[in-house]
Amino acid sequence: MKITKEQVQYVARLARLELDPQQLESFSHQLATVLDYMETLAQVDTAGVEPTAHTISLTNAFREDRVHQHLDTSKALENAPAGEDGFFVVPKVI
C-alpha cells in the first residue's frame, strides 16, 4: 500500500511533530513497508485458529494469598535510624 508524504505530514501534524523533508521521505517509505506486510498477513488463512492474547500459553505465577500476623510497630522501628511516636523520622524534603 502506498502512503504519501502528505498523509505522513498530516499524521505528524496531529501528533504535533515537526518533520523535515528527509524524515517525511523516510517515514513514508517505512510506513508503506509496514502496511504492505499487514496486507500479506491479511492473506493468511486463519479460519480454524482461535484468537489468543499471547503466542504461548501462560499460567498465573502469583502465590496464593495467606493471612499472616502484622509486623509490630516497635519491631518495624527497631532498625530505623530514627523514630518518634511510632513513626519513622526522615529528613525534610522540600
What does this structure look like?
The chain has 94 residues and is mainly alpha-helical. The chain has helices at 5-14, 21-42, 73-77; strands at 83-84, 87-88.
Helix and strand layout, with pairings?
Blueprint: H1 5-14, H2 21-42, H3 73-77, E1 83-84, E2 87-88
Antiparallel strand pairs: 1-2
Helix pairs in contact: 1-2
Portion of residues within helices? 25-40%
Shape summary: elongated
Strand content: under 5%
CATH fold group of the domain at 5-42: Histone, subunit A
Q: Give the tally of β-strands.
A: 2
Straight-line N-to-C gap: 55 Å
Instruction: State the CATH class of the domain at 5-42.
Output: Mainly Alpha
Radius of gyration, whole Å: 29 Å
Output the number of helix runs. Answer: 3
Catalogue the unreliable spans.
none
Mean pLDDT: 89
CATH architecture of the domain at 5-42: Orthogonal Bundle
Class derived from helix and strand content:
mainly alpha
Order of helices and strands: HHHEE
Strand order of the largest sheet: 1-2
Task: Note the main sheet.
Answer: 2 strands, antiparallel
Summarize the structure.
The chain is mainly α and 94 residues long. It has helices at 5-14, 21-42, 73-77; strands at 83-84, 87-88. It has a domain at 5-42: Orthogonal Bundle (Histone, subunit A), CATH 1.10.20.
